[in-house]
Specification:
heterodimer; A: Rossmann fold; Arc Repressor Mutant, subunit A; B: about 450 residues; Beta-Lactamase; 4 domains; about 10% strand; rod-shaped
Chain lengths: ~240, ~450
Amino acid sequence: MNPAASILTIEDDPVLGAYVHEELARSGFQVTWCQNGQQGLDMARERAFDVVLMDILLPGLDGLSILTYLRKSHSTPVILMSALGAEADRISGFRLGADDYLPKPFSMLELRVRIEAILRRVALDRRPLPALPVRRENAPSLRFDDELGDVFYLQHAAGLTRSEFRLLETLHRNVEEVLSKAFLYQHVLQRGYAPHDRSLDMHISQIRRKLKAIGYSEREVRTVWGKGYVLSGHDDSL
Amino acid sequence: MTAFERPLKRLPGRHSLFWKLACLLIAFCLLMIWLSWSWGRYMEQQNAYLSEEAKTTLSGYAAQAEQAWNLGGPLGVDAWLQAMGKRETTWIGVIGNDLQSLSSYPLSSAQNQRLTFLRGLDWPVSRHVKGLPWLKIAFPGDPEAGSLVIELPQRFMPGRYQVFWRVVTNGVIPGLFTLLLCIGLYRLLIMPLNQLREQANAWRADQLNTRLSQDATSRQDELGELGRAFDHMSERLQGTVVLQQQLLRDMSHELRTPLSRLRVACDSEQDLAQLRQRLGREIDAMQRLVEDSLQLAWLDAERTPLTKETIQLQALWDILRENACFESAWPASRLPCLLGPECWVRGNLNGLAQALENILRNAIRHSPADGVVCLDGRREGEYWHLWLEDQGGGIDERDLERIFAPFTRLDGSRPGDGGFGLGLSIARNALQRQDGSLWAENTGAGLRVHLRLLAL
C-alpha cells in the first residue's frame, strides 16, 4: 500500500473537517481540505488525487452535482459522506458513480478501512494479476478453474456461483491474510459496503457449505470479528 | 391469454358503472322514441276524426232535411234550408241520388264540382286540406232518397287543440322524463363524490379519523372502489401521522436517558479512560436508537417493492448463528436449525436477515441460562411457514400483538440493556414489505414467533 496516497476532503463542517484532516494526516496520507463545493470540484479536476472524500450537503455546489461533473472527465475514486438514514442519497450516490458511501457519524477506523479498501482495489486494477502462486504441497489442494468459474477438490466440483468463485479466489490469493469487508465489497461485488448488507456474508456462508460438501477441510473461511474474512488453515489462529 | 380474450379483458368489469350508465341511457332513449312515436300517432288520429257532438248534430241535420223533403218536397227543403242558413254560416245543400239538388234552386257548377269528391262522416279529415271539408250525409230514414251535403262548420273542425297537445307530447313530457333521468344520474354519480368532498374537507380540518359511510364503500362499481381507496388512504395517513408523532415522542424520551447519563458522567469526576469508555457506550446506544428509528420510519414510509432474491434459509441461519454466538457467547449447538437444505424462499436478503436477527436476539435475551432457540418450519403451498421458538416462558396473551408496536418493552428493562423495543417492529415491517407476515404465539414453554414467506 502506498502510504503517501493523496486525499481530497471536501467537508464544510469546520470541526469534523479539521478532525478528519488531522487524523488522516496522522495515518500517513497527504490530505487537502477544502470547504466549498465549487472549489473542491476545481481542485479535483486540476490535480490527480487518489481518493476524494466528500460530504453531500455543501455550500456552493452539493456533493451529488460535484460527482456528476467530475465523472464526465475523471475516474477518481469518490467516497460520499452523509447524515444517517438518507437512503435516497446513498442510492443516487452509487448511481452517479460513487465508490463508497459512509453514513455519518462514523469512526476514524471505519473511514480508514474504507479508504484502504479503495486504494487497494485501484492498485489491483492497475497492475496485471500475477499468476497464482504455485503450491507444491503434499496434501491435495483446491484447483481453481478460471474457464468454468469453479473450484475442484479431488475431482469434485464445488458448484460455486460467479461471485462466490471470485470471492474464494481473492481470499485464496491472499491466503492467511485478513481482508476487510469493505475491500471484499469493492473488489468482488464492485460496490460500497453498508452495515445491513448481508450479500457478502451470504456468499461466504455458501462457500463454506460447498467446500464442506466436497470434503475440503485443509483450510476454511474464518470470520475475524470487526475486521473481515480470512482463508486460514490453522485452527488456533483466532 | 389468447387473441380472443385480450379485447374482452379491456371491457369494464361486471360491476362497472359503465353497464349501469349504458342500460339507463339506452332504456331512456328507447322510451323516448316509443313515447313520441305512439303518442304522436294517437294524437294525430284523435285529431283527425269528428267529435261525437259534431256527428250527432250533423246526423240530426240530415234527419231534419229528410223530414222536410218527405213533408214538403222541394218547397219544404227550401224552407228548411232557409231556416238552417240562419243557424249555420257554411253552405248546406240537399241532393238526390242523381246528385241534383232536391231544393228548387239548382246547383252551380262550382258546387257540382265539389260534389264529385265528398267525404264520408267517419273519414279522417286532414289539417292540410284547403278550406273546410264538405260532408255527405245520407238521409237516415231512406238513404236511397237523398243526402244532406254540408260544408263542415268551423266549430266542428277537429284538431283545434293540436298545438297544445303537440307541446305536451313533444316538449313537456320528454322534459319531465329527462329531468327524472338527471335526478337519477345525480344520485348515482354526484352524491358519492359529495361524500368524498366532505371527507376531504374533514381532513382539512384535521379530523383524520372520519371515514366514509358503509354504503359508499360497499358499492361494487368504480365509485365504490374510489371510496375504498379513499378510506384506505385516510387510514394510512392517520397511521403515518400517529406513528410519526409516537416515534418523535418516544425517541426524545429515549434520548433523554443516555443524555442524562452523559451529563452525570460529565459532572462527576472520573478518570479519563473510564469516561471515554462510557462516552463510547452511550454514543453507540444513541446511534443505534437513531438508526433503528430512522429505519422503522423508512420501512413504513417507503412503498416501492424491495428487490427480491432467492435465499437458502440454512445458509442465512449460519450467518446469523455465527453473529449471535459471537455476541452472546452461546455455543452453536444451542441454536439448532431443523430446516433442511431444500428450504429456499423468495425475499429481500437484507430485510429478511435483519428481521430474523432481531427475532433471534430477542429470543436469546429472554432465554434461561441453558435455553435452546430453534428454527423450524414446513412448506405450506406457495409459502414457507417458519417458526423460531425459545424457552423463555412466553408472555402474557394480551401482549402477543403489542410486542410488534414500536418502543414496547414488556419487562420494563432499562434502555440500552434490553434494546429500545424497536427490533420486532422493524422485523414485522421488513417482512410485510416483502409480502411476508410475522406473528407470535405462546407454546407454554416459551414464545414461538411465526414467519410466513413466499417459497421459491
